[in-house]
Protein backbone atom coordinates (compact mmCIF):
# COMPACT_ATOMS: atom_id res chain seq x y z
CA UNK A 1 0.00 0.00 0.00
CA UNK A 2 1.01 3.64 -0.37
CA UNK A 3 1.57 5.48 2.91
CA UNK A 4 2.89 8.90 3.97
CA UNK A 5 5.74 8.56 6.44
CA UNK A 6 8.47 10.38 8.27
CA UNK A 7 11.45 8.66 6.68
CA UNK A 8 13.92 8.99 9.54
CA UNK A 9 14.65 10.71 12.84
CA UNK A 10 15.47 14.41 12.98
CA UNK A 11 18.23 14.92 15.48
CA UNK A 12 16.97 18.43 16.23
CA UNK A 13 13.61 16.72 17.00
CA UNK A 14 11.78 19.20 14.74
CA UNK A 15 9.28 18.58 11.96
CA UNK A 16 10.93 18.85 8.54
CA UNK A 17 8.88 18.66 5.37
CA UNK A 18 11.82 17.18 3.48
CA UNK A 19 11.60 14.12 5.75
CA UNK A 20 8.03 13.42 4.63
CA UNK A 21 7.65 10.92 1.81
CA UNK A 22 5.05 8.60 0.32
CA UNK A 23 6.29 5.03 -0.03
CA UNK A 24 5.18 1.43 -0.51
CA UNK A 25 4.64 -0.47 2.74
CA UNK A 26 3.10 -3.79 3.73
CA UNK A 27 -0.64 -3.71 4.45
CA UNK A 28 -0.88 -4.07 8.27
CA UNK A 29 -2.85 -6.87 9.95
CA UNK A 30 -5.43 -6.14 12.65
CA UNK A 31 -4.64 -7.51 16.11
CA UNK A 32 -7.07 -8.32 18.92
CA UNK A 33 -9.89 -5.77 19.04
CA UNK A 34 -8.66 -4.04 15.88
CA UNK A 35 -10.01 -3.73 12.37
CA UNK A 36 -8.33 -3.10 9.03
CA UNK A 37 -9.82 -0.01 7.37
CA UNK A 38 -9.55 0.74 3.67
CA UNK A 39 -8.93 4.48 3.93
CA UNK A 40 -10.97 6.86 1.78
CA UNK A 41 -10.17 10.18 3.41
CA UNK A 42 -8.29 11.91 6.19
CA UNK A 43 -7.16 15.48 6.89
CA UNK A 44 -4.33 17.52 8.36
CA UNK A 45 -4.49 18.41 12.04
CA UNK A 46 -1.69 20.52 13.58
CA UNK A 47 -0.85 17.53 15.80
CA UNK A 48 0.12 15.58 12.68
CA UNK A 49 3.28 17.65 12.50
CA UNK A 50 3.61 18.61 16.19
CA UNK A 51 3.68 14.92 17.12
CA UNK A 52 7.05 14.58 15.39
CA UNK A 53 8.54 16.99 17.94
CA UNK A 54 6.68 15.41 20.84
CA UNK A 55 7.24 11.73 20.16
CA UNK A 56 9.51 11.37 17.13
CA UNK A 57 12.53 10.49 19.30
CA UNK A 58 10.82 7.27 20.40
CA UNK A 59 9.63 5.99 17.01
CA UNK A 60 11.05 3.41 14.68
CA UNK A 61 11.27 4.59 11.07
CA UNK A 62 9.77 4.93 8.53
CA UNK A 63 6.91 6.13 10.78
CA UNK A 64 3.37 6.40 9.43
CA UNK A 65 1.44 9.64 10.04
CA UNK A 66 -2.23 10.63 10.29
CA UNK A 67 -4.96 10.35 12.94
CA UNK A 68 -8.38 10.90 11.39
CA UNK A 69 -9.93 8.47 8.98
CA UNK A 70 -13.06 7.74 7.01
CA UNK A 71 -13.18 4.43 5.23
CA UNK A 72 -14.59 0.94 5.01
CA UNK A 73 -13.79 -1.99 7.27
CA UNK A 74 -11.93 -4.54 5.21
CA UNK A 75 -11.35 -7.22 7.84
CA UNK A 76 -11.76 -7.60 11.58
CA UNK A 77 -9.32 -8.99 14.15
CA UNK A 78 -10.01 -11.49 16.91
CA UNK A 79 -12.37 -10.24 19.59
CA UNK A 80 -14.20 -7.59 17.52
CA UNK A 81 -17.91 -7.60 18.26
CA UNK A 82 -19.41 -4.36 16.89
CA UNK A 83 -18.17 -3.95 13.34
CA UNK A 84 -18.32 -5.83 10.08
CA UNK A 85 -17.94 -4.20 6.66
CA UNK A 86 -19.35 -0.69 6.96
CA UNK A 87 -18.47 2.95 6.40
CA UNK A 88 -16.92 4.84 9.24
CA UNK A 89 -15.55 8.04 10.64
CA UNK A 90 -13.35 8.34 13.69
CA UNK A 91 -10.16 9.57 15.28
CA UNK A 92 -7.75 6.78 16.19
CA UNK A 93 -5.02 6.86 18.78
CA UNK A 94 -2.49 4.74 17.01
CA UNK A 95 -2.28 6.83 13.84
CA UNK A 96 -1.09 5.80 10.40
CA UNK A 97 -4.17 6.92 8.49
CA UNK A 98 -2.28 8.74 5.72
CA UNK A 99 -2.22 5.41 3.93
CA UNK A 100 -4.42 3.24 1.75
CA UNK A 101 -5.05 0.91 4.72
CA UNK A 102 -4.92 1.51 8.47
CA UNK A 103 -5.35 -0.68 11.52
CA UNK A 104 -7.64 0.93 14.08
CA UNK A 105 -9.10 -0.12 17.42
CA UNK A 106 -12.73 -1.16 16.96
CA UNK A 107 -13.69 0.77 20.11
CA UNK A 108 -13.04 4.18 18.55
CA UNK A 109 -14.79 3.70 15.21
CA UNK A 110 -18.28 5.07 14.64
CA UNK A 111 -20.70 4.75 11.75
CA UNK A 112 -20.54 7.56 9.18
CA UNK A 113 -23.78 9.49 8.72
CA UNK A 114 -25.17 8.88 5.22
CA UNK A 115 -25.78 12.60 4.74
CA UNK A 116 -22.08 13.48 4.43
CA UNK A 117 -19.40 12.35 2.01
CA UNK A 118 -16.39 10.24 2.91
CA UNK A 119 -14.25 13.34 2.37
CA UNK A 120 -16.30 15.30 4.93
CA UNK A 121 -16.34 12.39 7.37
CA UNK A 122 -12.56 12.08 7.12
CA UNK A 123 -12.10 15.79 7.85
CA UNK A 124 -14.18 16.00 11.03
CA UNK A 125 -13.33 13.60 13.83
CA UNK A 126 -10.53 15.18 15.83
CA UNK A 127 -11.76 18.78 15.62
CA UNK A 128 -15.35 17.76 16.39
CA UNK A 129 -14.40 15.47 19.28
CA UNK A 130 -12.15 18.16 20.75
CA UNK A 131 -15.01 20.67 20.64
CA UNK A 132 -17.42 18.16 22.12
CA UNK A 133 -15.08 17.39 25.02
CA UNK A 134 -14.26 21.07 25.66
CA UNK A 135 -17.79 22.45 25.45
CA UNK A 136 -19.43 19.56 27.29
CA UNK A 137 -16.99 20.20 30.13
CA UNK A 138 -17.69 23.96 30.02
CA UNK A 139 -21.47 23.47 29.89
CA UNK A 140 -21.35 20.89 32.67
CA UNK A 141 -23.39 18.55 30.44
CA UNK A 142 -24.83 18.27 26.95
CA UNK A 143 -26.55 21.69 26.94
CA UNK A 144 -25.59 25.19 28.03
CA UNK A 145 -27.81 26.91 30.57
CA UNK A 146 -30.18 29.72 29.66
CA UNK A 147 -28.64 32.82 28.00
CA UNK A 148 -25.12 31.37 27.89
CA UNK A 149 -22.54 33.51 26.09
CA UNK A 150 -19.59 31.67 24.51
CA UNK A 151 -16.47 33.26 23.04
CA UNK A 152 -14.63 31.04 20.54
CA UNK A 153 -11.10 32.32 19.92
CA UNK A 154 -10.02 31.46 16.36
CA UNK A 155 -13.46 30.62 14.97
CA UNK A 156 -12.38 30.09 11.36
CA UNK A 157 -9.91 27.23 11.80
CA UNK A 158 -10.49 23.51 12.19
CA UNK A 159 -11.36 23.42 15.88
CA UNK A 160 -12.86 26.92 15.89
CA UNK A 161 -15.42 26.37 13.14
CA UNK A 162 -16.58 23.21 14.92
CA UNK A 163 -16.63 25.12 18.22
CA UNK A 164 -19.03 27.80 16.94
CA UNK A 165 -21.47 25.22 15.59
CA UNK A 166 -21.26 22.94 18.63
CA UNK A 167 -21.81 25.86 21.01
CA UNK A 168 -24.91 26.78 19.01
CA UNK A 169 -26.11 23.16 18.87
CA UNK A 170 -25.64 22.91 22.63
CA UNK A 171 -27.90 25.91 23.21
CA UNK A 172 -25.54 28.86 23.68
CA UNK A 173 -27.59 31.99 23.05
CA UNK A 174 -24.81 34.44 22.04
CA UNK A 175 -21.63 33.33 20.29
CA UNK A 176 -18.71 35.67 19.83
CA UNK A 177 -15.63 34.78 17.82
CA UNK A 178 -12.30 36.17 16.66
CA UNK A 179 -10.86 35.78 13.14
CA UNK A 180 -9.34 37.72 10.25
CA UNK A 181 -11.52 40.06 8.15
CA UNK A 182 -11.57 37.58 5.25
CA UNK A 183 -13.35 35.04 7.46
CA UNK A 184 -16.07 37.27 8.92
CA UNK A 185 -18.83 36.06 6.56
CA UNK A 186 -17.73 32.45 7.04
CA UNK A 187 -18.01 32.51 10.84
CA UNK A 188 -21.32 34.40 10.70
CA UNK A 189 -22.75 31.66 8.45
CA UNK A 190 -21.67 29.10 11.03
CA UNK A 191 -23.67 30.89 13.73
CA UNK A 192 -21.43 33.56 15.24
CA UNK A 193 -23.50 36.51 16.50
CA UNK A 194 -20.57 38.86 17.08
CA UNK A 195 -17.23 38.83 15.26
CA UNK A 196 -14.04 40.56 16.33
CA UNK A 197 -11.26 41.00 13.76
CA UNK A 198 -8.22 40.22 15.87
CA UNK A 199 -5.95 42.22 13.58
CA UNK A 200 -7.86 45.40 14.46
CA UNK A 201 -9.10 44.91 18.01
CA UNK A 202 -8.34 42.81 21.06
CA UNK A 203 -11.35 40.79 22.26
CA UNK A 204 -10.37 41.68 25.83
CA UNK A 205 -10.66 45.40 24.98
CA UNK A 206 -13.98 44.99 23.15
CA UNK A 207 -15.74 42.75 25.65
CA UNK A 208 -16.72 44.01 29.08
CA UNK A 209 -15.22 42.52 32.24
CA UNK A 210 -17.19 39.52 33.50
CA UNK A 211 -19.44 39.46 30.42
CA UNK A 212 -19.05 35.94 28.95
CA UNK A 213 -19.80 32.54 30.46
CA UNK A 214 -17.27 30.49 28.51
CA UNK A 215 -14.10 31.15 26.53
CA UNK A 216 -13.13 28.31 24.20
CA UNK A 217 -9.58 29.08 23.07
CA UNK A 218 -8.64 27.44 19.77
CA UNK A 219 -5.57 29.64 19.20
CA UNK A 220 -3.52 29.12 22.36
CA UNK A 221 -1.30 32.18 22.59
CA UNK A 222 0.72 32.71 25.76
CA UNK A 223 -1.14 35.10 28.06
CA UNK A 224 -4.59 34.23 26.72
CA UNK A 225 -5.77 32.85 30.05
CA UNK A 226 -4.84 36.09 31.83
CA UNK A 227 -6.87 38.15 29.34
CA UNK A 228 -9.74 35.68 29.22
CA UNK A 229 -10.26 35.34 32.99
CA UNK A 230 -11.02 39.05 33.19
CA UNK A 231 -13.94 38.87 30.76
CA UNK A 232 -15.38 35.63 32.19
CA UNK A 233 -18.42 35.91 34.43
CA UNK A 234 -18.37 34.68 38.04
CA UNK A 235 -18.01 30.86 38.06
CA UNK A 236 -17.55 30.82 34.28
CA UNK A 237 -15.13 28.60 32.33
CA UNK A 238 -11.96 28.91 30.30
CA UNK A 239 -11.01 26.01 28.01
CA UNK A 240 -7.80 26.21 26.03
CA UNK A 241 -6.38 23.71 23.56
CA UNK A 242 -2.81 24.71 24.36
CA UNK A 243 -1.25 24.29 27.81
CA UNK A 244 0.87 27.42 27.33
CA UNK A 245 -2.25 29.61 27.18
CA UNK A 246 -3.44 28.74 30.68
CA UNK A 247 -3.82 31.58 33.17
CA UNK A 248 -0.87 32.49 35.38
CA UNK A 249 -0.88 31.61 39.07
CA UNK A 250 -1.53 35.24 40.05
CA UNK A 251 -4.58 35.42 37.75
CA UNK A 252 -5.93 32.18 39.15
CA UNK A 253 -5.44 33.46 42.69
CA UNK A 254 -7.36 36.66 41.81
CA UNK A 255 -10.18 34.70 40.14
CA UNK A 256 -10.48 31.37 41.98
CA UNK A 257 -14.13 31.16 40.85
CA UNK A 258 -13.19 30.66 37.16
CA UNK A 259 -12.91 27.01 36.06
CA UNK A 260 -10.01 26.20 33.73
CA UNK A 261 -9.41 23.15 31.53
CA UNK A 262 -6.76 22.31 28.94
CA UNK A 263 -7.86 18.98 27.50
CA UNK A 264 -5.62 16.62 25.62
CA UNK A 265 -8.04 15.14 23.13
CA UNK A 266 -5.56 13.42 20.87
CA UNK A 267 -6.58 9.83 21.37
CA UNK A 268 -8.29 10.25 24.72
CA UNK A 269 -11.50 11.76 23.28
CA UNK A 270 -11.83 8.95 20.72
CA UNK A 271 -14.67 6.63 21.70
CA UNK A 272 -17.34 5.34 19.36
CA UNK A 273 -20.09 6.72 21.64
CA UNK A 274 -18.69 10.23 21.15
CA UNK A 275 -18.51 9.74 17.39
CA UNK A 276 -22.19 8.83 17.61
CA UNK A 277 -22.93 12.11 19.41
CA UNK A 278 -21.08 14.04 16.70
CA UNK A 279 -22.94 12.03 14.05
CA UNK A 280 -26.28 12.93 15.62
CA UNK A 281 -25.46 16.66 15.34
CA UNK A 282 -24.52 16.04 11.70
CA UNK A 283 -27.77 14.19 11.00
CA UNK A 284 -29.80 16.98 12.64
CA UNK A 285 -28.12 19.49 10.29
CA UNK A 286 -26.42 21.28 13.19
CA UNK A 287 -22.82 20.45 12.28
CA UNK A 288 -21.00 20.60 8.96
CA UNK A 289 -17.33 20.59 8.12
CA UNK A 290 -15.93 23.20 5.77
CA UNK A 291 -13.22 21.85 3.49
CA UNK A 292 -10.77 24.52 2.43
CA UNK A 293 -8.63 22.44 0.07
CA UNK A 294 -8.34 18.80 -0.95
CA UNK A 295 -5.05 17.05 -1.65
CA UNK A 296 -4.24 13.53 -2.78
CA UNK A 297 -1.94 11.29 -0.72
CA UNK A 298 0.96 11.83 -3.11
CA UNK A 299 0.63 15.60 -2.45
CA UNK A 300 0.96 15.23 1.31
CA UNK A 301 3.78 17.79 1.49
CA UNK A 302 1.58 20.42 -0.19
CA UNK A 303 -1.20 19.57 2.25
CA UNK A 304 1.13 20.03 5.23
CA UNK A 305 2.35 23.32 3.77
CA UNK A 306 -1.21 24.60 3.53
CA UNK A 307 -1.92 23.70 7.16
CA UNK A 308 1.40 25.07 8.42
CA UNK A 309 0.58 28.48 6.93
CA UNK A 310 -1.94 28.78 9.80
CA UNK A 311 -4.90 30.37 8.02
CA UNK A 312 -6.95 27.39 6.96
CA UNK A 313 -10.66 28.06 6.58
CA UNK A 314 -12.03 24.94 8.25
CA UNK A 315 -10.01 21.92 7.19
CA UNK A 316 -7.36 20.73 4.74
CA UNK A 317 -8.68 17.35 3.55
CA UNK A 318 -6.85 14.35 2.13
CA UNK A 319 -8.59 12.23 -0.50
CA UNK A 320 -6.89 8.85 -0.39
CA UNK A 321 -9.31 6.65 -2.33
CA UNK A 322 -11.60 8.51 -4.67
CA UNK A 323 -14.49 6.43 -5.90
CA UNK A 324 -17.39 6.77 -3.47
CA UNK A 325 -19.53 4.43 -5.59
CA UNK A 326 -17.44 1.60 -4.14
CA UNK A 327 -18.80 2.30 -0.67
CA UNK A 328 -21.17 -0.42 0.44
CA UNK A 329 -23.17 1.33 3.17
N1 LIG B 1 -5.55 19.95 23.16
C1 LIG B 1 -6.07 19.24 22.17
O1 LIG B 1 -6.56 18.14 22.39
C2 LIG B 1 -6.08 19.80 20.78
C3 LIG B 1 -6.92 19.23 19.81
C4 LIG B 1 -6.96 19.81 18.53
C5 LIG B 1 -6.15 20.92 18.25
N2 LIG B 1 -5.32 21.41 19.22
C6 LIG B 1 -4.49 22.59 18.95
O2 LIG B 1 -5.37 23.68 18.78
C7 LIG B 1 -4.80 24.62 17.87
C8 LIG B 1 -5.81 24.93 16.78
O3 LIG B 1 -6.02 23.78 15.99
P1 LIG B 1 -6.83 23.90 14.62
O4 LIG B 1 -6.95 22.53 14.07
O5 LIG B 1 -8.04 24.69 14.82
O6 LIG B 1 -5.77 24.75 13.78
P2 LIG B 1 -5.98 25.50 12.38
O7 LIG B 1 -7.14 24.93 11.65
O8 LIG B 1 -4.66 25.48 11.71
O9 LIG B 1 -6.32 27.00 12.83
C9 LIG B 1 -6.07 27.99 11.91
C10 LIG B 1 -6.88 29.21 12.30
O10 LIG B 1 -6.28 29.90 13.39
C11 LIG B 1 -6.70 31.24 13.28
N3 LIG B 1 -5.83 32.15 14.04
C12 LIG B 1 -4.49 32.21 14.02
N4 LIG B 1 -4.07 33.17 14.89
C13 LIG B 1 -5.18 33.71 15.45
C14 LIG B 1 -5.43 34.74 16.41
N5 LIG B 1 -4.42 35.41 16.99
N6 LIG B 1 -6.71 35.01 16.75
C15 LIG B 1 -7.73 34.35 16.19
N7 LIG B 1 -7.57 33.37 15.26
C16 LIG B 1 -6.31 33.07 14.90
C17 LIG B 1 -6.67 31.53 11.81
O11 LIG B 1 -7.69 32.46 11.57
P3 LIG B 1 -7.62 33.54 10.38
O12 LIG B 1 -7.18 32.79 9.14
O13 LIG B 1 -9.04 34.04 10.32
O14 LIG B 1 -6.61 34.56 10.79
C18 LIG B 1 -6.96 30.17 11.16
O15 LIG B 1 -8.27 30.10 10.61
C19 LIG B 1 -3.51 23.97 17.34
O16 LIG B 1 -2.42 24.51 18.06
C20 LIG B 1 -3.68 22.50 17.68
O17 LIG B 1 -2.46 21.84 17.85
C21 LIG B 1 -5.27 20.88 20.47
UniProtKB/TrEMBL annotation:
Pfam families xref list: ADH_N, ADH_zinc_N_2
Record domain Enoyl reductase (ER): where: 15-318
The protein's name in its UniProt record: Enoyl reductase (ER) domain-containing protein
Organism per entry: Durusdinium trenchii
Organism lineage string: Eukaryota, Sar, Alveolata, Dinophyceae, Suessiales
Amino acid sequence: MRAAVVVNRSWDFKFHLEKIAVMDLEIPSPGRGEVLVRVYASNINPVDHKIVELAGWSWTYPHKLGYDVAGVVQSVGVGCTRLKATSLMEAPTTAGTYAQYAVVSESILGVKPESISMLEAGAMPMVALTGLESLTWAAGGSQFGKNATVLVLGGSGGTGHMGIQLAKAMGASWIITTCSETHVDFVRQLGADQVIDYHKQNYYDVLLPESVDVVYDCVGLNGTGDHAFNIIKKHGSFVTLLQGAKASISTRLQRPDVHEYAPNCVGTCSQHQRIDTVASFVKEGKLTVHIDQVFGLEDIVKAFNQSLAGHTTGKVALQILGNESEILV
